[in-house]
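User: Last request for today: this protein with NPW, please.
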Amino acid sequence: MQGIWTTERIREAEGRAFAVTPDGELMRRASFGLSVQIADVLAEHTGTVSGRRVVLLAGSGDNGGDALWAGAFLRRRGVAVTAVLLGSRAHEAGLAALKRAGGRVVSAEDGPQWIARADVVVDGIVGISASGSLRPEAARLVSLVEAPIVAVDLPSGVDPDTGAVDGPAVRATRTVTFGALKPVHALAPSWCGEVVLVDIGLELTDPDLQRLDVADVAAAWPVPGPEDDKYSQGVVGVAAGSATYPGAAVLTAGAAVRATAGMVRYAGHAADVVRAQWPEVIATGTVADAGRVQAWAVGPGIGIGSEGRDVVRYVLGQGLPVCADADATTIIAKSPEVLDARDPDTPLVLTPHAGEYERLMGRKPGPDRVTAAREAAKKYNAVVLLKGHVTVVAAPDGRAAVNTPRGAWLATPGSGDVLSGLLGSLLAAGLDPWLAAAMAAHVHSLAGAIAAQNAPTSSSALVHAIPEAIRSIRSLLS
Ligand SMILES: NC(=O)C1=CN([C@@H]2O[C@H](COP(=O)(O)OP(=O)(O)OC[C@H]3O[C@@H](n4cnc5c(N)ncnc54)[C@H](OP(=O)(O)O)[C@@H]3O)[C@@H](O)[C@H]2O)[C@@H](O)CC1
Ligand SMILES: [K+]
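Assistant: Here's the final one, the structure of the complex with NPW:
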């Protein structure tokens, strides 16, 4: 797992590190690492380092200090460095070092002409002490940049703890961060570009947020052993779709078939269509006739009328893990009494998008999506997978994971149905529901990238890409 820490926790760790390292040492480590990355971006985009032109946008704090010191290091490699000073003051030691190394220093007013000729621009405007979007002077200069931007610690204008952007902000090619990943790096991938972490010796434990590594997913993915049969690996029940809309049933059941080797049972009005598409599925008309399962995936396309409500109430009353998605989420929001059927100790996973979240919570998720997911998890005593470009998975005990996607092709109709089939099958295999949800999100986005190959895709293609996604993840283990 990759750990991610809030800026408050980073500051505490920096405070501890400051106390035991010589003055200026942390910034030296940070800015040296930064200079290596700037040189790398220069080489990548121009083929050389020496003789190239770098412009530093330097704000008034230590973020600007990092940029100025990195500029001094780059001078030693023959780079022409110009610092454009923003704000009322500049980091004194950094400014002196850059000047000593032969760097040029100009005012914001003179910035545009230097920015126009830059090979790389460095965003040292603001770091973890940022609040709000870029101020007008910085915003104007940033809007002129055509060269690749290397952001120092984080792209300025993006909220460090939520990744929210509500005005002008820097869109970086690469973000070089120090000590530990901060929420912005996982929550605002399209603003950060490639994220590089430079170790400066901070000691941090108990991350505030986590992101699954491929290795975590590979290690935890259920694999049949020699003693296993079709029952022992977990039988998943799928209650989805309707006679008019059988697609949701086919996609949800199909994802469950493709995700694990266990058996899949289907219950609902689309039994014939499901059987025709997936002959291995045992399909019946009602949840009561479905037979024994170890978990339920309920909701996609079942409708929000009284019949759907009865289905949701029935599966919640079975004492089994449930993934409640789509219409099941709306039913729970509108008729919370269906939850009375649930034994509070049995796992429940809710998978709302922003609109369903609003129905469940009576308000929009807002810019702080991690807190939003945690609050819903507490309220419903359930794991909440909040869908969005970046998916957040929160558990009632406060654990939170983020899944940073690969591209945006997954925003296609039926994609959520596939996720709920995946998730249901992992619940049936007995996985911890928070881990199951985070793993399902991970495999879902990887399957999306495989299906899309940089072009539009469909949810059917997504289902068929699941084994390839699992194979590529598991190939790490061999
Ligand atoms: N501590 C360490 O160990 C290490 C820290 N390191 C580095 O220090 C960075 C944190 O530095 P920091 O705390 O000095 O503040 P920083 O983020 O530069 O902001 C400065 C000032 O900018 C202002 N400002 C606020 N919002 C703004 C906006 N939207 N647009 C424009 N300006 C805005 C606001 O001042 P104001 O103008 O409001 O008075 C604020 O006080 C960290 O990200 C990392 O790069 C590394 O060297 C490793 C070691
Ligand atoms: K920055």
